[in-house]
Amino acid sequence: MLIAQNVRxxxxxxxxxxxxxxxxxxxDWQYSAIIDLSVNKMELTIIPKVKIPxxxxxxxxxxxxxxxxxxxxNNYLYASHPxxxxxxxxxxxxxxxxxxIPLDMCIRFMSLFQMPKETxxxxxxxxxxxxxxxxxxxxYDYTYSKLGIISMTxxxxxxxxxxxxxEHKGFLISFKTENLKKQLHGPFPINYTKNANSIEFSDNVxxxxxxxxxxxxxxxxxxxxxxxxxxxxxxxxxxxIKELRDQQKERRFVYNKSDIEEIVLGFLFFDPDCVINYxxxxxxxxxxxxxxxxxxxxxxxxxxxxSDLNISLIHLQNDLNYRLTKRKISVSKIKDxxxxxxxxE
Length: 345
Description:
Elements: H1 4-14, E1 19-26, E2 29-36, E3 41-47, E4 57-62, H2 66-73, E5 76-78, E6 96-97, H3 103-111, H4 117-126, H5 128-146, E7 147-153, H6 159-166, E8 171-176, H7 177-181, E9 185-189, E10 191-193, E11 199-200, H8 205-212, E12 215-217, E13 225-231, E14 252-254, E15 260-265, E16 275-279, E17 282-286, H9 293-305, E18 311-316, E19 324-335, E20 338-343
Parallel strand pairs: 6-11, 10-12, 15-18
Antiparallel strand pairs: 1-2, 2-3, 4-8, 5-14, 7-13, 8-15, 9-13, 16-17, 17-20, 18-19, 19-20
Helix pairs in contact: 2-9, 3-4, 4-5
């Protein structure tokens, strides 16, 4: 993560230590990073003020969009850059202060980008704010070329989440948390706060990045977000640096199908205007004229081909408490554009 690869290489050359361990407490939350140089591995940890048990299952909501269907059928999670996120304050640059960076740290940091010591010293003495701004931009771009954000939540039947992220026409995937933990950093609960404090870049670059990805406004608290961090050893695409895109990899973390616990279809995934028959708990739909035909059929083809997956459909609870519920179903293809589902529970 971050400038980790460069730091590892520099530390190995100096032969000073096998492990680098860093911990910082911010607003009663503890952030730590351990770099094991002997195996070239980083371990990141966030301990909340009040212990929060990690859910066995975490879910990802999807709208009925072509790129979401592509991610499912090709078994990958999109590892977001901060610019991709729907909260403009997510990974907010102001969470890290780049003031008062000592000269020796400026020299070490800029050496990772081949800036000579003499140039750094000249900028530090004559144009310090320009140097600090350069460090800030390099840190941000380099960090998020190596780091991707995967946001999930723990509730698969939340009315607001279904409405906001899929308009009830989409779907979600429930993942086995332990499986993803073996391949990603996290999951970390989000540190929701009304007023955030900044952390000094000079305190520790690794902790600064971990903190920046973890703090959000408490206006989002109902989402109960858990976040995985994907560390890529190859630079990933940056939305703000178009000239490098051909040299950068897609922001994709590829998972195994066995990591999926369940796929849940939204209440309106099966377009009611497309139903042609309903009897004995079997509903049949002709999607020939559906405006979401390509996306619906794309996902249904995947489900038919992977019939060993657990599939559920959202239903409305049969009472006046405004609750959603799930019912297990199986999906079948009748012929081109025509599919059916059957309740099996």
